[in-house]
Amino acid sequence: MKYVSTRGAAAGQPHSFLDILLGGLAPDGGLFMPLDYPRITADELRHFRTLDYAALACEILAKFADDIDRDTLAALTRRTYTAEVYRHTRRAGPASDITPLSTLGSEGGTTLSLLELSNGPTLAFKDMAMQLLGNLFEHALARDHATLNIVGATSGDTGSAAEYAMRGKRGVRVFMLSPHNKMSAFQRAQMYSLDDPNIFNLAVQGVFDDCQDIVKAISNDAAFKARHRVGTVNSINWARVVAQVVYYFKGYLAAFDDAAWQAHAEAPLEAMPKVSFTVPSGNFGNVCAGHIARMMGLPIARLVVATNENDVLDEFFRTGAYRVRSAAETRQTTSPSMDISKASNFERFVFDLFERDSARVAGAFEAVASQGGFDLGGTPEFDAIKHYGFVSGRSNHADRIATIRDVDARYRTTIDTHTADGVCVARRYLEPGVPMIVLETAQPVKFGETIREALGHEPDRPADFVGIEALPQHVTVVPAEAERVKAFVAEHSAD
Ligand SMILES: Cc1ncc(COP(=O)(O)O)c(C=O)c1O
Ligand SMILES: N[C@@H](CCOP(=O)(O)O)C(=O)O
Fold first, then answer.
1. What Gene3D superfamilies does UniProt report for this protein, alphabetically (predicted)?
2. Domain containing residue 410
3. Is the pTM of this model over 0.90?
């Protein structure tokens, strides 16, 4: 499989998977995308049902990473997706399911379920891809005898997932930018209490988008990037997205019982039953993976993009206007990891929507940089969005509180604030006979303040996180200036 930039001008393209594994943006400022999508067959889908998570991940990754030999890939996925690593499961299924599908109940003539993606070391869906990335990076660096300085941005969960995945890894240093004082107390403690010598936390005086802009500025500085061997772990990195594709397949495979599979034992892909997914969204990385799964042929009816009060994406899918917000307009909410007003991966979807016309994509994102957005309202592209299954909705603090209370009362299940945004919006799109799967993106303990407000008690806390907020914290506060961050990286980078 070869990869090209969404903006079309990346030198030396197309590239292989290993070529683009460690980097971030393409050299022309675009994002890497596969030249085309590998398509699955109905028989393949039926075969996937016999596989455990590690084997399923190997099958799907092999379609995108054909420059890693199959045995190595199998060993890497087997080492990553273990019951020991994804051990924080609370409700359904054995831990070895890795991402159990947990049925809430029947609503609107269908089944409403949660796909548990937060059972890994840091209790958020980021662990699903990040643990694999840690092992892939180790493989690539060992091959090249190289070192890597990872510069990343987080609104709360990517940071801890990356740091837990990379801590102690030889030749790797992590410089993680987070918005100063804008994450939950638990999220801050998770990141800042690490004292591994290869981990550096930088609290940026700004919002998440400022952190992300700095990461992109560094990624766009080819000389700095090369001199300090800068890599990235945000979802601008293609490997992050592709690792997230796997659990859409897993969710689909778990959504139907044996009788339904038997009834479709000979059915072609078009006749297989469909599911819908609702995805709490901010940077568009998670739902972008759903889009890719759908483009590969996974029978998905709807991809529901759920936002919080920071509703840039909801506005786009309702009206066609993509209008990014300034730092001052970005709200600090109780689903803080989604407090994002410039969604990095949205460009990947626009690339498909514009039928891979990279000049048009470049023009649209130049308009984002110079005029703050673009408007597809009333154009054929806006009409075409429905063919991709996308719909959207937003929720707010009151909705989150009401949804957390309702799910707790009806189903004896405590959900986190981001998953609550998802459940709230999913309920607007239930269709009889089409199972609705909401991606559970974090565990409630990460947002204890809001859970207390909603339920009047503390969420359950895994034993390994008891007392974490009281540990000493290690963080350097910096202004939202790329040059200041570069100077810090240059001073502390791995040789
Ligand atoms: C808990 C949680 N939910 C949802 C999101 C939004 O996901 P994405 O940025 O991939 O759209 C994030 C951050 O990415 C998150 O940490
Ligand atoms: N919500 C994320 C923001 C970064 O998203 P990413 O998927 O691009 O890494 C976070 O929790 O940090």
1. 3.40.50.1100, Threonine synthase, N-terminal domain
2. 95-123+238-455
3. yes
